[in-house]
Description:
The chain is α/β, with parallel strands linked by helices. The protein has a single domain, classed as 3-Layer(aba) Sandwich (Rossmann fold), CATH 3.40.50.1820. The protein contains 4 helices and 7 strands; from the N terminus they run βββαβαβαββα. Strands 1-2-4-3-5-6-7 form a 7-stranded mixed β-sheet, with helices on both faces. The protein is globular, with a radius of gyration of 15 Å. The two termini are about 30 Å apart.
Amino acid sequence: MIARSQHVIFPATDDGPLLEGVLRAPDGSGPFPTAIVCHPHPLMGGDMNNTVVVTVCRALAERGWITLCFNFRGAGDSSGSFDEGRGEMKDVAGAVDFLCARPDVDADRLAVVGYSFGAEVGLHHAARDSRVSLLVGIALIQKCYADSFLDADPRPKLFVAGDRDSWAPAGALREYVARLRQPK
């Protein structure tokens, strides 16, 4: 399935920065399952053009999903400045608001997918937002494992880790996931 893409601008929920993004949507009126894909740490060069982020967006779009990748505040052409994750959670909330207002989005099938820092920020927001139905963490950084924000979450969760990633070691992730509530 070929998806059309468009550049979009939407606000974070704190009425602060305007965020730039790329929305990919299949032809048709929908509603379609939808994924917000969050990029790695902006102070380490992460943005919505990251190879993993773009690959995930394209793969889901080819399978009939709407996808939104966007730049957190202060990254790319998004306004504002980096906020140590606090403001970036508001950016994810703004993305959820933006998508839930679209008639082609199936609001019952909304995923937050994050890569590295994007997984930390995206999943922290998603854990508090009942509109999100699926949580996906790619290379979720190890410091998140000590946090209990997902321990009792009843929604489906998927985690992906490389076996040579020192920031998100697969063995430590397996131990973390073992304590999480089903489904996972």
